[in-house]
Amino acid sequence: MIHIDLKDQNILVTGASDGIGREIALYLMQMGAKVAVHYSRNKNAAQALIDQFPDSGSRMYQSDFSKPLEIEGFWNEVLNDFERIDSIVLNAGVFLKQPSEASLKDWYTIWQETMHVNLDAPALLTKMGIDHFRKQQGGRFIYMASRAVFRGETEEYMGYAASKGGLVSLARSVARSFGKLNIKSFIIAPGFVKTKMAEQFIADYGEQAVLNELALNKMTVPKDISPLVALMCSGGMDHTTGATIDLNAGSHIR
């Protein structure tokens, strides 16, 4: 395992009870960080993660990002316990099937939930994070985007691709606007990652269809992403602020 020293760092990871977020939070704790573990519904999984590092000072926090009005209270609760946050990993997201044959009302309902979770919640946390980082004279944002931003997605997931496109523009604007305040912003754009989020797509199209797109012989797994996040949090990639790191097994090379 690559060791990246994160001792004395306080890091918020959203969507940390499962999938990519869980592996990120686990790796950060292994590197010595104190992690604010956000979860939406899976309290038991979040607790199990915390229990692996009972002396780390890490804690878990619940918030349903499909309800944006809850997010300010969630942020204030984290700050009340941690006082200082050094990095915010904006990983929480949904990948909701949105067939074009659906009624306009149903289609738009899915669109709204996708935007609330994938774009509105990160935007609100970005605003509050900037306010916090101004006071402490620096901090880092890591935004979990998607390959879909740069090559598009199948018609059932247009809303997902659009939400992640907005996230990338937000992250780049943060990098350009606040770098002189020692605030950095990074983007990771995975392709398909073997998590529960990808299960519906694989069920519809088959895992072989996913594998056929790759330059490598196997799908990306969450453990492939967590060391990169740790390096970003450490300050080792500060001069890549505003950059997008593609992590898609060679399925879309720009």
Secondary structure elements and their pairing?
Elements: E1 10-13, H1 19-30, E2 34-39, H2 43-51, E3 59-62, H3 71-82, E4 87-90, H4 104-136, E5 139-144, H5 148-151, H6 158-178, E6 183-190, H7 199-205, H8 207-213, H9 226-234, E7 244-247
Parallel strand pairs: 1-2, 1-4, 2-3, 4-5, 5-6, 6-7
Helix pairs in contact: 1-9, 4-6
Pfam families: adh_short
EC number: 1.-.-.-
InterPro entries: NAD(P)-bd_dom_sf, SDR_fam
Give your account of this protein's structure.
Its EC number is 1.-.-.-. Keywords: Oxidoreductase. 45% of the residues lie in helices and 14% in strands. The chain has one domain (10-193, 221-245): Rossmann fold, CATH 3.40.50.720. The chain is of the alpha/beta class. The mean pLDDT is 94. A 7-stranded parallel sheet has the order 3-2-1-4-5-6-7, with helices on both faces.
Radius of gyration, taken over Cα atoms and rounded to an integer in Å: 17 Å
Low-pLDDT stretches are none
Number of helices: 9
Kindly state the percentage of residues in helix.
40-55%
State mean pLDDT (0 to 100 scale): 94
- In total, how many domains does the architecture comprise? 1
Tally of strands: 7
Q: Please write the CATH class name.
A: Alpha Beta
Query: How would a textbook summarize the main sheet?
Result: 7 strands, parallel
Binned strand content:
5-15%
CATH homologous superfamily grouping: NAD(P)-binding Rossmann-like Domain
Shape: globular
Brief summary of the model shown:
This protein is an alpha/beta fold.
